[in-house]
Amino acid sequence: MFIQQSIIIYQIKIGSISNASVFQIGTTGSFQTYASLNNTGQFTEVLDKPEFDAPIVPLSQPNI
């Protein structure tokens, strides 16, 4: 299979990016995942558990 694309983007706005975000333009033959955990702030103590003002909504397991 041969796929040829021509994509022209004049402007793109991304509202937010989180740790598990994927931004893709075009197609991909294979998708390699990558994850890393880095202490870039040189923190020495564990943070307290955050308090949420809004209720946490449980998510269902995706069907893959």
Uncertain segments: none
Portion of residues in beta strands equals under 5%
From the spread of the alpha carbons, the general shape counts as: elongated
Amino- and carboxy-terminal Cα gap: 24 Å
What does this structure look like?
This protein has 64 residues and is largely without helices or strands. Helix content is 0%, strand content 0%. The chain has no helix or strand. The protein is elongated, with a radius of gyration of 19 Å. The two termini are 24 Å apart. The mean pLDDT is 78.
Topology of this protein?
Blueprint: no helix or strand
Give me some keywords for this one.
single chain, little secondary structure
Q: What is shown here, in short?
A:
Helix content is 0%, strand content 0%. It has no helix or strand.
